[in-house]
Amino acid sequence: MSEPDLAALVELAERVARQAGELVRTRPDTVDVASTKSSPTDIVTAMDTASEALLRKAIHHERPDDGILGEEGGQAKGVSGLTWVVDPIDGTVNYLYGIPAYAISVAVVTGDPLDPSGHQVLAGCVHNPLSGETWTATSGGGAFLDGRPIRVNRNVPLDRALVATGFGYDAGRRRHAAEVVAKVLPRVRDIRRIGSAALDLSALACGRLDAYYERGLGAWDLAAGGLIAREAGALVGGLAGRPPGPELVVAAGPGLYEDLQELLGPLRPDRDGEATEVSEVSEDGAHD
Ligand code: IPD
């Protein structure tokens, strides 16, 4: 495979994300759930399907040899070694209710996009169609919000950290996630549950949040936002040196990242409720 042209890839990612954004912006007053996936609360709207169809068509038109992995339509393999990873609406529940926190996420990766340690994200774009804000990044080329360079907050003390998280859709997993967050909340400035992982990671990248963690992300939730956060200076990983992926994503600026790893480690946010006893951790971090 010849050296990919990162500038061309991010330009295409942004262009198609904005095109999908134009469509998603036409939200009707009433939105219906078209179908459900992993649980009754894990929903698909007609707009998710339409936005993904637009993204697939636009990408395929310009790069017919590349693969595409989409949240709703699954994976179409290509022959070029590159795969586009798209979330047509990240924050679908917000879209359903008309809460203005949803985004189109488009990234392009080399390797297997479904293997957390087996791919590299080359370029990505997260576009909020309502605010118009657009985050972009290329591997090694930095991260930008509306064309201006962005940086994460650095060395934020844990007790001053604004930490975002999410809960996925599985009831058992949520029970455990609630136990974990109950132990995190007294140790940090506050918690945010914005409802779009791509926007969480993008907000972290430009200093609107200090940290983010969540179990159960799909590759499409993580690919673009993860690159944007990393290129803005965040550390992005799983627990204890593992790569970020469906098991767990932890992201924060240097200093805070290490403290958050230490806090989360014993709480095992990378496991499901059924399998885990959450040990008590007191205010000073000692185990009861
Ligand atoms: C969801 C959002 C949410 C996160 C879930 C994701 P979707 O994506 O990113 O914030 O907590 O884990 O599945 O379903 O709206 O594309």
Please, what is the CATH homologous superfamily of the largest domain? Answer: Fructose-1,6-Bisphosphatase, subunit A, domain 1
Name the assembly state: single chain
Secondary-structure element series: HEEHEEEHEEEEEEHEHEHEEH
Which ranges are low-confidence, i.e. pLDDT below 50, for 5 or more consecutive residues?
275-288
How many distinct folded domains?
A: 2
- CATH class of the largest domain, please? Alpha Beta
By CATH, the topology of the largest domain is Fructose-1,6-Bisphosphatase, Chain A, domain 1
| Helix count, DSSP H or I runs of 4 or more residues | 7
Number of strands: 15
Strand share of the residues?
15-25%
Protein architecture, described:
The protein is α+β, with helices and mostly antiparallel strands and about 290 residues long. It folds into two domains: about 5-150, 2-Layer Sandwich (Fructose-1,6-Bisphosphatase, Chain A, domain 1); about 160-275, D-Maltodextrin-Binding Protein, domain 2, CATH 3.40.190. The protein is about 30% helix and about 25% strand. It is built from seven helices and 15 strands. The chain has helices at about 5-25, 45-60, 90-95, 170-185, 195-205, 220-230, 255-265, and strands at about 35, 45, 65-70, 75, 80-90, 105-110, 120-125, 135-140, 140-145, 150, 160-165, 190, 210-215, 235, 250. The strands form three sheets. It has an eight-stranded mixed β-sheet. Strands 12-11-13-15-14 form a five-stranded mixed β-sheet, with helices on both faces. Strands 1-2 form a two-stranded antiparallel sheet. The N and C termini lie far apart (about 55 Å). Mean pLDDT is about 90; it is low at about 275-288. D-MYO-inositol-1-phosphate binds near residues 167 and 217.
